[in-house]
Amino acid sequence: MTANESPVGLPTGGAPTSSGEGLGDVARRAAVWGLVLLGIIVLALVLWKLRLIAALLFLAIVMAAAVRPGVEALARRRVPKSVGVGIHYVALFALFAAFVWVVVPRALDQVESALGVSSIPTSSGDLSNAANSSTGVKRDILVALQKRLEHLPSASKLAKPGLQVGLKAFEVLIGIFFVFACAAYWIFERDRAVDLVCSVLPRPKRKLVRDTWTLIDLKLGAFVRGQLLLIALVTVVLSLAFWAIGLPYWILVGAFAGLVEIVPVIGPLAAGALAVGIGLTQSVQLAVEAAVVLIAVRLLEDYLVVPRMLGDAVGLTPLVVLVSITSVGILFGGFAVVFAIPLAAVCATLVDVIIRNRDPSEETVPKVLFTSGDSET
Fold this sequence. Notes:
Mean pLDDT: 75
Number of strands: 0
Number of helices: 12
């Protein structure tokens, strides 16, 4: 028996007992986890209050992911990144202007044809004349519009609502500018942001975080570019097919079918219902032909175009897509549906890396239009 031991063999002084150390560790862990949980709750509340800003920032990051490969491809050809971003933005606005120039005049002609008038009524008198010369559903629509015009408030009463509409339009323009500006800055600053995040992490975790970030960026970029191509392809193919079978308002239905490709599962169903409904106004045969065209284009898209162009870019099943769209729409509103799938893709990638222990550097992402230098690392 030593001098530091009691008659029963227990230490009488010096270091604390192992049970004391265990209690201290438990207390420290509980305090740390409590602070972490409190921080998560506070962060969630802040993000909820600033959900519009967070949504716009996420949209800017998604846009930057889509544009970055082209900017980097130009940079490898000694084109400055700022010039590369400008080239992409100019090309995007030029495509939008070309779409408006080609589609809008013909769409207006088809709207006039749908109303059964030579020109769209712009006053109560025009509506009255058009309603008197129309029958059926068209007449009911025009009469309802005429009643609305007759009960419109005076100019003084419209001043305040008009001002509110003007402010809303100004806010929308500010939001668009904010998204494009943030996307441009994120293209320039992403690598610095990744370096900053990795600098506060343990060295063994840095490569994993960097590879995960790169994988998410590549997935988002491939998805956005693929969706834009699908929208253009579906719009052109369906519009021409509807024109060939003689479907009324073919360019309106084709453009609608292309735009709702943004909302998977639900969008194609809505487009199909619209096309078949318009076909039924003429004949059952035309409705059947419209349904056959839609099914053929859908099969072509699902079994040929999407596997070759998008592949498994986001790695989401149709059920997950549907639940994600519904959940995001309920929580954040209808405008948020457009980035429900990118958000779900980010969450799915994090689950694969953190919970399923998959190596992000071994994951493959389809090359849509071009690939980024990130994919080579």
